[in-house]
Amino acid sequence: xxxxxxxxxxxxxxxxxxxxxxxxxxxxxxxxxxxxxxxxxxxxxxxxxxxxxxxxxxxxxxxxxxxxxxxxxxxxxxxxxxxxxxxxxxxxxxxxxxxxxxxxxxxxxxxxxxxxxxxxxxxxxxxxxxxxxxxxxxxxxxxxxxxxxxxxxxxxxxxxxxxxxxxxxxxxxxxxxxxxxxxxxxxxxxxxxxxxxxxxxxxxxxxxxxxxxxxxxxxxxxxxxxxxxxxxxxxxxxxxxxxxxxxxxxxxxxxxxxxxxxxxxxxxxxxxxxxxxxxxxxxxxxxxxxxxxxxxxxxxxxxxxxxxxxxxxxxxxxxxxxxxxxxxxxxxxxxxxxxxxxxxxxxxxxxxxxxxxxxxxxxxxxxxxxx
Length: 371
Ligand SMILES: Nc1ncnc2c1ncn2[C@@H]1O[C@H](COP(=O)(O)OP(=O)(O)O)[C@@H](O)[C@H]1O
Ligand SMILES: N[C@@H](CCC(=O)OP(=O)(O)O)C(=O)O
Description:
By secondary structure, this protein is an alpha/beta fold. It contains 14 helices and 13 strands. The chain has helices at residues 13-16, 26-41, 53-61, 70-94, 106-110, 112-127, 150-160, 196-200, 216-229, 244-249, 267-275, 286-293, 336-342, 350-354, and strands at 6-11, 45-50, 99-104, 131-136, 165-170, 191-192, 233-238, 256-258, 280-284, 304-308, 316-320, 326-331, 368-370.
């Protein structure tokens, strides 16, 4: 018998609805409810991250395409979310499995105290055998502070609860070397042992998803990156066959599996990397990139060439190489206006330039996470 596993399952709009009509795919939802309830009865801890609020809201209101304005999307999501939970509650209650609705916004994980609070709530729900059903709180989320897609949200939830598994259920059976809809000869990928392999295999992820979904494969790969860094084994598999989740847990090589990192990034650093919302960007010269990426050093002012955005001391920033590629994130010891004056300068000059003595480094290595 397998030890207790913590399992996060994300299902996308494309699997919850029928592609032709946009109506609910009832048999999929029923099988999903059966599978998750069965996993629960075996003692596993299960969280479902479900999309569908916008898609189901549209179907309920007879809209034939996704709304374009933010306000209309939020209104439609408010209609669809209630409908979605009603359907889940019917199925899960039939199976005597209690569920809970958890609606999160980006700021719920961006602030340390709220992040810890969300963690405690999930633990309490899992302890009493409830399956939390999570979605973004679309109705109140503001554009600049959105997760944007539920693939990312599910990876953040999996990282928060330190899950063993993250299943991304979608409308293709696995990841291919290119979008199989446009390239029928694309090669299936069964196992990704490290994320650099995707670049080596030259995997093409095409443009954002289906008519009702949002992310496409791009966001699933981004989610796999976040989750595997947290030590979570991640699987992309077909939503039409939720029973496959159990088969995969038992070792069947279905879907595309992403192996977890053997030495996961610690919880605080994961929060710095993916919980905190970066408010600026620092561009570094090659020497500084090498120092932080290869030698594990703190970031010094001397290596910073350009600063973008306005931020305060203790805010999170993105750290980029000279080509603009993000290599790390971290919490800065100086505001953007202070940094404009000390960038490119030696640490011993900081006190003279600013007129007061501050930290010798701009980001201490304990507050720096490689991406
Ligand atoms: N390399 C690829 N391998 C597999 N599918 C891909 C790839 N690139 C793009 N896709 C597309 O991504 C789609 C799944 O994303 P999406 O529609 O957003 O699903 P969901 O609603 O489940 O999140 C597939 O239908 C497929 O057409
Ligand atoms: N919060 C949105 C989810 C949007 C989303 O990520 O959709 P999908 O690409 O189908 O997983 C909704 O419920 O409609």
